[in-house]
Amino acid sequence: MLSLEKQFTISHTIDLSSVTQERKCTEEEMHYSIPWCMVYYNSNNDFAFGVSCLYTGSKNWEIDTKLKFKLKFSERTTQTKYEKTFGSTVTSLGWRRSVDMEDLKTFSAENGKFTIQAKVVIKKMSGFGKEMMKSFDEHSQKHWDVILNVDGQKFHLLKAYLASQSSYFDILLFGSFKEASQEEVELKEVDHEDFQSFLELIHGESSVDKMSRLEKKFTLSHTIDLSNVTSAPKSTAVKTHFSIPWCLVYYKSNNHFTFGISCLYTESEKWGIDTKLEFRINSSDYITRLECERTFGNTATCWVWLRCVELEDLKNFYAENEKLMIEAHLTVKKMSGFEKEKLKSFDESSQNHWDVIISVDSHKFYLVKAFLAFQSTYFDKLLFGSFKETSQTEVELKEVDRDDFQSFLELIHGEPAVDDTNIDGVLHLADMFDAPTAIRRCEEFLLLLSKWSLDEKIQLAERYHLKDLKINLQQVPKEDQKKELEDVVPKPAEQSPEATWFSWIRTVPVLFYLNCFLFVSILFFAIIISLC
Description:
Layout: E1 6-15, E2 24-25, E3 29-31, E4 34-43, E5 46-53, E6 62-72, E7 77-87, E8 92-100, H1 101-107, E9 113-126, E10 146-150, E11 153-157, H2 159-165, H3 167-174, E12 184-187, H4 192-202, E13 216-225, E14 234-235, E15 239-241, E16 244-253, E17 256-263, E18 272-282, E19 287-297, E20 302-310, H5 311-318, E21 323-336, E22 356-360, E23 363-367, H6 369-375, H7 377-384, E24 394-397, H8 402-412, H9 423-432, H10 436-448, H11 454-463, H12 467-473, H13 478-488, H14 497-531
Helix pairs in contact: 2-3, 6-7, 8-9, 9-10, 11-12
């Protein structure tokens, strides 16, 4: 699986005549909230260049890096790489005496120019505060209407959006409390860094430190009285998980205990749920379990563990007072034939403080103008600029897919809304609406979770001009690329021994007649030569 490495490249074209013993710096660039530049100079008639970290925000800090330096000329490229650590005492690292100045003149003789390049891969950063993924200061929030003061830190926010995400803020800012009329509200006993992360999360950022696959999984359990177990199947209470009804079933089969799980979905004709199942029988001293993979569907709604334990053994080793616990742990791998489940509703009843209706393919989404503007420069200009839509209560968006727009809204409202079925459509809208948070979340999905092929991901990165994503994808180790090809290209079928034997038998007569022909030909020519 790919990792989200922090990496960037700095390059600069140099005129040979400008290289002197005085160190020169390229224009400063910001990467991961840290300022960087390149330096170059003449060092005892050798060309030297490197990377300089201009960070001065704290006393003790370190950045462990992998560095790759390149000198590019019209007909050749020279390069080197190593691992180094920047820090408060070592702010510049480079390639000293990379090329003799005379050779430099020869290589760049065509126009006297050449390019220096440094690729920096950040392995670890220490001594820095947690990098803010989104700022909530006065300058970054154009349309704020409340300030929340947390431990002296001021967050400029939108009342209506906070209320849509939290019933606490809905009551606090729109209820009968004094805070409803205050421009600045203080929150006590709240850590300002945790609150920053909370705000980033509800504003669509993947702010949790270790992003993981959000698997759909659940457990059904039930305590059984063995005296009630008969050959007639019994069902437990129906439980709904991921909008699908489930229950456990159990019964006696030839003096053995049998139990399983049943899917009670009946809404469509063709549907399928690929699962990983783990059945368990638990007691204070013993656990018996079975793991398997099964597919539920309209023709296979129930899977059971047949004759898992003899009833006498259950009574002797598992049951206490003739009672025992059965469990089924189910992980959903794939669902097909279902309408995509909405993670968040944007209808009138669920949005108390909406101020604009966005109509997409006749479907109405009730939204907050200022939040849309905060997430997207397109909506900022459309809803707060000089267009006629600024004064309209309802705005129609044409040539936009309704389902993709639903997923886009869920994504910027903090939900894990992208998957392999909608990533292309959501990324298209994120690019069209110029929504950086949505684009970043799509990039993370493609790097960490998507099962699209590497080639498909690179094509997507090129289509939407995602330079950083393309660079990350091109760093995939060759062994991973080979594994991906092995998964796609079918292995040659192996012949059975019978097929191999039959093939050999078929070949024997051919070889026999060929050898006879060669023998007769040689004998014929030998006789002719002897007669001559």
